[in-house]
Every structure is written in C-alpha cells, then in structure tokens.
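Need a sequence for this fold. Nothing fancy.
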C-alpha cells in the first residue's frame, strides 16, 4: 500500500490493481462561482500526473469535498467507479457523471475491493435550501492486505460510528481529520469537526495499525494557526505516550509506503487525561 496526501481530504491510495482517490479537490477555491476559501497549499500531485484512478470515494457534498470541476476531469479521463452516500449522486448526475449512492451500512463491490459506506457525524449543504438533503459518511474499504478507513469530515457525535467501522475487520490504515476544529480560543473540537485530541482517540478506538492525519493546512476554514493541528497532535501524542507513534501527519505530496498489518500494543489513555496534560504544557500555548 502506497499513500500520498494530496491536501485537505484528498488522498491517493494505491494497492495492487486498484488506485483509490478520496474527496478529490484540485480547484483553487472551495465554493460556488469562484467564491469560498482559497487554497494556501498547492495540490501535492498535479492533476495531470495522477495515475489512472479506479475508485473515487466522496464523503459528502460540501465544496471542499465534492469538487465538480475536478471530478468531471477525472471522470472523462478514467471513468472511475464513484461511491458516495445517498443524494450526492444527483449532484454528480447533473454534471454528466454516474455514481453509486449508498445508505449507511450498505456496501458495493468494486474490482477486488468491497466499499462499505459507514456512519460518521457531520451535515451537508451546497446552497441555502438543501441542508441535510444528502447524506454524509465515512468509508471502510476491504482490501486483501487489510482495510482502509476514510473518516471523511466528522465530529465525534456519539462516537459509536468508530466502533461500527472497526467491526468490519482489521484496519491497516486510517485516514483521520485533525483540522478546522477551532472557532473560539482554546476550543479542541467542534460539533462537525474533530480536532487532534479526538482524532487520536478515534485512532485508538479503531485499533488501526497505522493512521494518517488529513484535513488541515490546505483551506482555511477555522481560526487555528496553519501548523496548529499537527503540532497539537504531536503534543497530544507525547501526553498519551505508548502506542501512538503510528498515527501522524505527513508532508503534502510525499508518497508513504504503509507497512503490512501488525497488532500494535493498544494505546491506553483517555481524552480527559490528555487535555489535563496539554493544559500544563505546549498544547495550551498553541493558537
């Protein structure tokens, strides 16, 4: 398994016989009609340099995750299978693309993989009158060498969605968001976005062999500093101690080879303990 973080929630995952792309966004702005947050980091791979894409996962319909201009170029070039959650297929169909739209806990076979659409905690809208008329989701992709988990865009909510994803089988790699969580001083999470502390807890509860931090450093969607998400994640890992070194941020555009599945020692920590630790050290100073 070779993985390249393109930026934000866009990740290229390559396994033998299958190239997977999550929430592909190559546009300069995340919004309609040329408005919306502007990129602060170029895509880690030029769109023209992507290998043939076999499968695209689309978590929900926000503009920083469902980018019709990018999707249309990839669709016309490669005709990939597109799997998303209910209602988002109508948006794609309006632009001449076909997708498979599934409810939570449904699955679709694509090539040698099985794609499960699983629950997370978010919301949807592309305009003023369509709030929550399409579904949002995470994904578990069953692969021969171990499952891929893509969290999409999510807050913690009841947290049971983590257990539901883990129940589908051992996770080799988890793609977990760490950014866009701070809308007031000191905030560590929002209703719709987990921050680094909760991302670390998600990694622990998934029991994943490896984890990659995504959804930071590409579009400014909230008030934390550009480098605060990975720095806060590093600080939280030091507070948590053993079992957390396998989850971290990677440079944009740098391919990473994911080692085979192993059974790492489960991290033993709780959120409250990490927050207490951060309040007495570098985490409390990060803005």
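Here you go.
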């Amino acid at each position: 398994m070779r993985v390249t973080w393109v930026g934000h929630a866009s990740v290229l995952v390559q396994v033998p016989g299958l190239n997977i792309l999550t929430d592909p966004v190559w546009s300069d702005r995340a919004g309609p009609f040329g408005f919306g947050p502007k990129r602060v980091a170029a895509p880690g791979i030029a769109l023209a340099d992507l290998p043939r894409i076999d499968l695209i996962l689309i978590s929900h319909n926000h503009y920083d995750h469902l980018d019709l201009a990018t999707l249309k170029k990839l669709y016309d070039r490669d005709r990939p299978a597109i799997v998303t959650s209910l209602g988002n297929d109508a948006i794609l169909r309006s632009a001449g693309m076909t997708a498979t739209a599934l409810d939570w806990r449904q699955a679709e076979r694509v090539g040698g993989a099985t794609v499960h659409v699983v629950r997370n905690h978010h919301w949807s809208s592309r305009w003023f009158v369509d709030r929550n008329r399409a579904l949002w989701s995470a994904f578990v992709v069953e692969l021969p060498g171990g499952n891929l988990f893509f969290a999409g865009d999510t807050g913690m909510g009841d947290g049971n969605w983590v257990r539901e994803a883990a129940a589908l089988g051992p996770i080799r790699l988890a793609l977990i968001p760490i950014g866009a969580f701070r809308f007031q001083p000191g905030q560590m999470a929002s209703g719709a976005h987990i921050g680094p502390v909760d991302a670390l807890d998600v990694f622990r509860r998934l029991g994943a062999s490896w984890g990659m931090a995504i959804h930071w450093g590409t579009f400014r969607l909230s008030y934390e500093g550009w480098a605060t998400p990975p720095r806060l994640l590093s600080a939280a890992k030091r507070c948590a101690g053993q079992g957390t070194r396998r989850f971290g941020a990677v440079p944009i555009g740098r391919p990473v080879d994911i080692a085979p599945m192993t059974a790492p020692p489960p991290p033993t920590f709780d959120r409250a303990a990490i927050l207490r630790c951060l309040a007495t050290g570098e985490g409390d100073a990060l803005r």
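For context: The chain has one domain: 2-285.
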